[in-house]
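Dear Dr. K.,

Following up on our conversation at the group meeting, I've run the structure prediction for Glutamate decarboxylase from Ciona savignyi. I'm pasting the input sequence below exactly as I used it, so you can double-check it against your construct before we proceed with anything downstream. Let me know if the numbering doesn't match what you have in your notebook.
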Amino acid sequence: DFHHPHQLLDGIEGFSLEITGEAESLEQILVDCRDTLKYGVKTGHPRFFNQLSSGLDIISLAADWLTSTANTNMFTYEIAPVFTLMEDVVIRRMCSIIGWEDGEGIFSPGGSINNLYAVIMARHYVMPEVKYDGMRGFPELVMFQSKHILQSKLAGKVPFYVTATAGTTVIGAFDKIPEISGICKKYGVWLHVDAAWGGAVMMSQKHRHLVTGIELADSVTWNPHKMMGVVLQCSALLTRHKVLVTAVMYDVINLLPIVMSCLVLSRHSDVRNTSQGILESCNEMNADYLFQQDKHYDVTYDTGDKTIQCGRHVDVFKLWLAWRAKGDAGFEKHVDRCIELSRYLVRKIRKTRGFELVNPEPEYANVCFWYFPPCIRNLSDETIKHEKLNKVAPLIKSRMMENGTIMIGYQPLGSKVNFFRNIVSNPAVDYDDIDFIITEIERLGRD
Ligand code: ABU
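The predicted structure tokens came back this morning:
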């Protein structure tokens, strides 16, 4: 039931967002709840293909309610004894699925925050003194999402971090991790794999090959709230460096300038405490009103100093309970089915007039395609045709939203004009919903 922002802000059909200051009746509160859902988007609907996270997993929904019932904070064992241990257990299981014998991690509010944690860890790995002294006086650090490592080195910079992607947001592409890892190892560079979207393929024997070599990474972001269907938010940052051993230990030649700076500037003995986890070493602030070292239990189970956050929501219970309920096999079945449904869409697109795939052989559950309505199909001037094509996806999307029948995302990419990106991650999607994508786009775009 789409309305424009100004309509919702002005109030609609008795639904007002205003806080009047007056206490409302219980009846009104219930009406507010109903209206909030009425004017929202039903992301659990099987024709919602708009986002990487979709669906409504009942087990994790129940877990979310229980989490709020407990209403606690992840920062200390003292107030979250079960949840902190549960996080430890789940993190260790995720590390083992990646292929690491050891490791640590945390759940944080989303993939981008976890990627930030990875950058902070990688910097701490090569230059632990930066935590205390800032970046001034150290060589210029550079991080990469593509090529040019050697060029930066020659320019006197210090490559310290490369991020590979397992399941890109738009195309769903997977980087070749072993090749990237080889370069990272050679130059002593931290390798992070952003598997926020693609990490779920590790649960599938059929599709795990897409992340071959992920165990070579230093850290991984993996979001169970995407392809694994756990309700938002549930995003993990994992590292195989359970114990802090700085880069000094393994790449002395390449990092000699940094080593020298660290040795000269080092006046903080704790940055070389090799029994400490890397997350704690780089993020701890030792707030003594929370993390007293003389508590009567094993304070290594307090998680608060592993993060820059302090307060941290309990996100692990949703995943833990869903995992208990479905088992590995349940997640595997779900991943395989979503990819199979996406392949079915690819086959339909290939044989339907007016549709064209952007990437002819999609690897994952992203299917990107253009729709050429009849009015532009036969245009001979390619420039005009592409100018018009660029407007098609936004126009059809607006009609999807006005009609409330289906939602699919669109975007341009590089030189490619606007195209649809269809995602299947919702267990409620069936073959007839995929058929509907084609017929509904044809209906909404017939002119
Ligand atoms: N963090 C990226 C999510 C984007 C998407 O759902 O399309």
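Two things stood out to me. The radius of gyration is 25 Å. The chain has a mean pLDDT of 92.

Best regards,
J.T.
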